[in-house]
Amino acid sequence: MRELDARIDRWVEAGVISPATGEDLRRFEAAHADADSPPSLDAEPSPTPPAPPRALALVGEVVGYLGAALVVSAVSFLVSRTWGDLPTAGRIGLVGALLAVVAVGGTLASRPPSAPAQRLASVLLAATVGLSAWFAWVVIDAATVSDDLEAPLVSGIALAVAATVYALRRRALAQLALLVTLCVFVSLTLAAALEPREQLISLIIGLAIAAIGLAWVGLAVTRRLEPARLALVTGGLVAVFGLQAGSFEEGRWWMLALAVALSVAMIVIAITRSPLTLLIVPGGLGMLVAVPRLIERLVGDALATWVAVMVTGVALVVAAVMMVRERGRPRTP
Length: 333
Description:
It contains 12 helices and no strands. It is mainly α and 333 residues long.
């Protein structure tokens, strides 16, 4: 059993299997160990096993979250009371020390292969991305950088940290941090570049965010992003709501029409392609939000808007029934 545990640990560290799969394998082998090996008459009764390390790891995970919550509460209080009185060096030192503690804690927690340790590492390393942005803002603000460059620089540094974390840990929380920082960086950079043409900011940012979402879905389909299922959902949502974000100005009903068309396309793909079933989530949510807004923009009638809501709901129910029937149909050999 010890040899199996060592092998599972190596598989998890190498990324061959996930920590959750490793835990399932341990439980399965432990449950079937007695059935696979007949009892020996000469065998001495085994001593009572010590407390399993996985239980200790779970306790450590909870304690880690509690400690992080206490640190955040204390820092928030101290910052609110003393931030204005702190010199520049004190601000940089305070945020830098907090960043170092969280980053080192996340790195150390990522080494054990147990699932609780990996979850704690994901949370701490995701917090590292946010603290990196805060630290960059404090340093750049102290350097009296131009206001036009401050936001792109801060978000660019956070994006670089998020990309590094995801390159080292291809997990769900790291992927979400990378997607969020990428969207923030693109939005702030475009806003700074387009400031003289303020009327185009929301349009171009919306189209850029939609392009990021579509690219994210494409990377998920080609298995270049892991977990791929999460990337399908988040990329689809970003694409749909990016188009809707660019439609708030008058006369941009066509952006809503694009959002509806994209949502319908994702629903059709989810119905017809089993590996892409999860696209039903962003497709359905996009329909629920975009269709009523489009009808209201074109017709301006509350009754017609609610009729559109009803039709959209019926269409989603029909799509769900088709998916259930298709998935439940027995396959002929």
